[in-house]
Design goal:
Length: about 230
């Protein structure tokens, strides 16, 4: 099927014979529960076919192995397939695609993608899968890109919103192994990330861990002030 397109504006007659321009949304392709694609989300024909094949396989009494077909997709199409499945609420299928993504040679831990997954899983009440997801992150290369402050803060907020106490603590452990809060590591302790994490940990009753986060921020701030004063 083809992605939805918005055409217009089209003149529409209103009271008094005047006309008003409005946008008309046209949906193309089979009628399912999928909403129209928004601006900026354009799927290639390969990604659309992959989404449809996965959904057909899920409905089949003898589902075929689609992993080989997924591995043939280029990076952009594979990620687009994953995000489209998340958008449609097919989290179980999205996790299968994510497994293929993680097996690709180009893959590096993407905090923003993890945040998207956690949010979708939480919306579908798949709490155990959230914990499993963070556990898999721990077993990847052991470090994350702490320079991705937006992705990191989104992931932490998603875990807290999903009420995943243990996974939030484990996420902090991954951050520490990546150099966060470690003196001499040269890694920035972002104030916003630290405050979001500390607040969430206190909410979960993890006061000792929260104090550790607060001290890391304080030490980093003092070190920065010391450098400025030199």
């Amino acid at each position: 099927s083809l992605p939805s397109r918005t055409k217009g504006p089209f003149p529409t007659t209103i009271h008094g014979g005047a006309t008003s321009n409005r946008l008309l949304t046209i949906r193309c392709g089979p009628r399912d529960n999928r909403g129209p694609l928004v601006k900026g989300r354009v799927l290639s024909s390969e990604a659309i076919q992959a989404v449809q094949a996965l959904k057909r396989a899920q409905r089949s009494p003898n589902p075929p192995d689609v992993s080989r077909s997924l591995s043939r997709l280029i990076k952009a199409d594979l990620l687009a397939t994953l995000r489209e499945l998340l958008r449609q609420g097919h989290c179980d299928l999205a996790l299968k695609v994510f497994s293929t993504v993680r097996s690709e040679s180009w893959y590096k831990t993407d905090l923003g993608l993890y945040a998207d997954l956690v949010q979708a899983l939480a919306n579908n009440r798949m709490a155990e899968d959230i914990d499993r997801l963070i556990g898999e992150m721990e077993m990847e290369d052991g470090v994350i890109d702490l320079g991705d402050k937006k992705g990191l803060s989104r992931l932490i907020k998603a875990l807290i919103a999903a009420e995943r106490r243990e996974s939030t603590v484990r996420m902090y452990g991954v951050m520490k192994r990546s150099g966060w809060g470690c003196i001499g590591s040269g890694v920035e302790v972002d104030e916003y990330v630290a405050k979001v994490l500390s607040k969430g940990l206190r909410r979960f009753g993890e006061r000792d861990v929260a104090r550790e986060v607060d001290l890391a921020l304080e030490s980093y701030s003092n070190a920065c002030l010391g450098r400025v004063g030199v």
